[in-house]
C-alpha cells in the first residue's frame, strides 16, 4: 500500500507546553486511520499540522507526496477538512452554504446540489444553517469538505455532541466516503466509533504515540480478562471462588461476575451446574486498551 500521508518526527511547542513531541506515522492510500487520545494529548495540533494549518517547529510532513506547509494551493484542492468546531454561515441557507464552498473551489453548482442529495439534506436546502439540528449541521460541514471531491479527508471529532441515531447515520456516511476510495483521517473520543470505522488507530498522549495498529490487534495484544456474568443465585460467590481460583469473582444481589483469562473453562463448568441463567460475556475492548495506556485519572 502506498502512503497518502507520511509524518516524520514532528514537534510543536507553545511556550512551556509541548503539544507534539516527536510524532511519526504513515497513513496508507484508501485507509481509514484514527487518532485517539485524552483531552490535551495533541490530537488536534497534530491534525492541523498535517492539514497545513500550523507549521511544525521541526520534522517533516508529506501529504500526497508534497509538504502541506508552506500552504500549497494545489494541495488544498486535493484535501478536505472538517474542523473540530463546525463554523457555518448562519444566515445562509443550506444550499447557499454548500454552493459557496463549491464556488471557492470552482466546482459547478450541479456538484453542490448532488452533495445535498447524497447527504440527505435536500429537504433542508432552503433552511438556514442556524435552524439545522446537530446531526444535520455535521452532515453539511462534511458535505462542504467533500464538495470538491478531495482524495484525503480530515475529520476532527465529527460526531461530538450527536445523539446515538445521528452518530450511527453519520457512521454510514463515513463508511461510504471511505469505500469510494478516499483516505480518511479521524480524531474521536468514542472508542466504539474507532473500532467500527478505522482500519488502524494510533493512541497518543502527551504529544506522543503510545501504540498504533488495527483495533482488533491492539485488543488482542492487551490479553485482558473476559468478564462472565450470570444471574445471582445461579452459583454462589463462595462456590465460584473455589471453582475458579485464578479468577476474580464479584457479586451482588443481582448478578455474579467472574473475570478470567480462560473463559472456555469457566463457561463449561457453569454449564455442567446449569448456572448460565442471565449469561453475558464481555471481552476486552479498545476502551480497555485506551485506559490501560493513558490511565484513568481525571485530566485538567
From TrEMBL:
Cellular component GO terms held in the UniProt record: plasma membrane
Annotated GO biological process: response to antibiotic
UniProt cross-references to InterPro entries, sorted A to Z: AAA+_ATPase, ABC_transporter-like_ATP-bd, ABC_transporter-like_CS, ABC_transporter_ATP-binding, P-loop_NTPase
Keyword GTP-binding: no
Pfam families: ABC_tran (PF00005)
Keyword Transcription in annotation: no
Domain of life of the organism encoding this protein: Bacteria
Residues covered by the ABC transporter domain: 5-231
Classification via SMART domains: AAA (SM00382)
GO molecular function: ATP binding; ATP hydrolysis activity
CDD domains tied to this protein: ABC_DR_subfamily_A
Record keywords, A-Z: Antibiotic resistance, ATP-binding, Cell membrane, Membrane, Nucleotide-binding, Translocase, Transport
Location of the protein in the cell: Cell membrane
Membrane topology summary: Peripheral membrane protein
Family: Belongs to the ABC transporter superfamily.
Annotated protein name in UniProt: Multidrug ABC transporter ATP-binding protein
